[in-house]
Amino acid sequence: xxxxxxxxxxxxxxxxxGKPMARSMKLHESREGIPEGFSLRGxxxxxxxxxxxxxxxxxxxxxxxxKLMDVSTPSSANYGKHLxxxxxxxxxxxxxDSVDAVKSWLKENDISAKTISATGDWLSFEVPVSKANxxxxxxxxxxxxxxxxxxAVRTLSYSIPAELQGHLxxxxxxxxxxxxxxxxxxxxxxxxxxxxxxxxxxTIPSSCARTITPACLQAIYNIPSTPATESSNKLAVTGxxxxxxxxxxxxxxxxxxxxxxxxxxxxTLQTLDGGSxxxxxxxxxxxxxxxxxxxxxxxxxxxxxxxxxGEDFQDGDLEGFLDVVNSLLDEDTPPFxxxxxxxxxxxxxxxxxxxxxxxxxAQLGARGVSILFASGDGGVAGSQSASCxxxxxxxxxxxxxxxxVGATQGFSPETAADFSSGGFxxxxxxxxxxTSAVSGYIKAxxxxxxxxxxxxxRGFPDIATQGVNFEVVVGGQSGTVEGTSCSSPTLASIISLxxxxxxxxxxxxxxxxxxxxxxxxxxxxxxxxSGSNPGCNTNGFPAKxxxxxxxxxxxxxFNKLLSAVGL
Length: 567
Known about the structure:
The chain is an alpha/beta fold. The protein has 2 domains: 2-58 and 95-172, no CATH class; 206-564, CATH 3.40.50.200. It is 25% helix and 21% strand. It has helices at residues 61-72, 85-92, 96-108, 129-136, 214-221, 247-257, 286-296, 321-329, 351-366, 435-445, 484-504, 514-517, 558-564, and strands at residues 2-3, 25-30, 38-43, 49-56, 114-115, 122-128, 141-145, 151-154, 157-161, 168-172, 235-239, 268-272, 304-309, 337-340, 342-345, 370-374, 394-395, 403-409, 415-416, 423-429, 457-460, 463-466, 470-474, 477-481, 525-526, 555-556. Strands 11, 12, 13, 14, 16, 18, 19 and 22 form an 8-stranded mixed beta sheet that branches. It has a 4-stranded antiparallel beta sheet with strand order 5-6-4-10. It has a 3-stranded mixed beta sheet with strand order 1-15-17, with no helix packed on it. Helix 1 (61-72) packs across helix 9 (351-366). It is globular and about 70 Å long. Its EC number is 3.4.14.10.
């Protein structure tokens, strides 16, 4: 898991600095104080420009959520009857009253904003800091991240005109702080590479105790090596912070570890926000190569697309997350699975921004897309966080409309990887599909860690896979990496292969996974009952029978999942 950096981009607009008439302002969002790890450097220069995004209130998200659960719950008569693009857009498009109110206010302040989403719920514009302070009763200042020196112009609170309440949901970036701590997974090289093609998945090669390859995953989780057949079944891998997927390295990886398929098997490229994918060996990214090699190399025959997001970010601190999801929502046939190995600590993000992004994942889920994120690599300390007095949940793992993937290690039996981030959201409540699982764990936990976590919050991760000592090829060299970055693409491959079988049988793809995983899918998972995820000067949460905030419900078994989905 890699935490994101705070960079963003919006289109520039000429604007006049006319003085708006006085109006009643209402506090909209605020922070209790400066986030840990940041220091106030001073006031931002009045003439410095700041690029802002506005999110309008969506018209009928409650109905979208109801429909999402209806099409995602196996016991429902509408299970698998996913919504169309038009049906989703109709439910989330802001009302005309909201559009008119916000645009009237913008015009009143001589601001020309650009609509940047298909449904018109996102607008962007640029103004000087002085005008931003005036518009939102804010105090935009310069904050410095103590460890990295990264600077960000933010405010600890902002207000909006009273007449925009119920119409304007979010101004960004305001109280959301960047999370610049993240680094790609550590690559240890070189090591001796050994091909491991199995004749029987009933036998796990002894070498898998040292390093993990596609053959190891096939053996541990009964993943088939037979090629997928359905061209409509696409798998998307997202890439950020100049992490590039190298085709020559993929060829070498397949030559060594998947000798049963063509070494020329590759992926397609999609770019966003000025993204690219240069192919020089010196620019090969550890994270990007890991994600691509363990999707192309495990999801045999599934068409894989690498979405490379550049640095012209529209949404600031979340490294293009909103731009990726809005781009996919605008596609008529988005990929059926998307895996992402990036994120950041929930406490650095405003609640409204977290809600907006989470709701976007609900929209994709309603259309039949499985959204997977690595849970993080800092145990209960969050996304590689250095210190904490209370446990730090990661985002977007706390979002109830996506699937968070933790990490395990070893086999016979598997145990929790100690870095596997997990816990309970402070922003999102326990969803209905998870109530029984979470309450059972908290009851078994007793007084352990009392007061350090939100016992009423959405628990994560939901599921786990292997995440230690994965062999990858980077810049022509073979080495190993570890992290939940290994786990999410592994699960994405398994879900994509299940989708291939479902589509071939004339059925719908799995879509939003959690209602299935917490009901009929639970019996198809290997329960992990040992290990923990220490952090914040504690032993963290222990893995226990049933769901736990280290490995979720457990690890997948492809054959059992095949039966669970009715094949």
